[in-house]
Here is the input.
Amino acid sequence: MRSKLFVPGSRPELFAKALAGQADALSFDLEDSVAAERKAEARQHLRTLLEGVAAHAGGKTLIVRVNPLDGPHFAPDVAAVVRPGLHLVNLPKPESADDVRALAAAVEAAERANGFRPGVDAPVGLLLNVESPKALRIAHQLAAAHPRVAGLQLGLGDLFEPLGVHRREPQAVAQAMFALRMAAGEAGVFAYDGAFADIADADGYRAEAELARRLGFLGKSCIHPSQVALANAAFRPGDDEIAHAVRVVEAARDADARGVGAYVVDGKMIDPPFVLRARALVAAARRTGLLPE
Here is the structure.
């Protein structure tokens, strides 16, 4: 999931193009990009899409960002969009572990109501936005609140702007990313980078995406199709990196067979943490077609 493109739920004319595009994931939005008077309409558009075949044919990760838990649109959002084949429900602005558990309960109820078949239809996971100082401080608690949580997503605009922190301040961006990554790592879920609003600034987007990758994030959000290629390139491991990871995995296999705990590959001392990273990189390269199965 190197790239995740936002698609307004009220714009069904964009759905087919997004499904045919190069983004690894699509985040259909019912929150900020949909006016209040069009929420019900957007909800129905997404229900129709998710009940059809086309949405599931391309192998993309399908996500819906619902409205906040404490508002009138949350319950009907979840009831409408939790359908077999949906991968993640994205919740904005959770502020407590109880919020996460309430989301999980709503998703579970919608699965029962909408005909999910146990053992056949995969359960819907949760992607939680971290968009406030409190949420960042308790990010591990949010991520660990329920087994359905798959990842944490950083929302720097909502986090920084009310505090007067400049959205492009490098130290602030890096510190927030690092804090989120550590919280996600403790909980055993992925960390995902948020949006970059300046569509015309490709260099700025690229730099932020590359920083996110160096900090161990899974990918970056895109608010415009022009950002998809930038995210895919930033989160694509380099050929030399892949080749080194393959050699590490092969050396680890040989070392395990010989009972050796630490060894050298390409002049670097290798022990279990490096092997874990190499295996993850090789698996990612295979998923994206950079290595044969």
Q: What stands out?
A: Residues 239-287 form one domain. The longest helix spans residues 239-258.
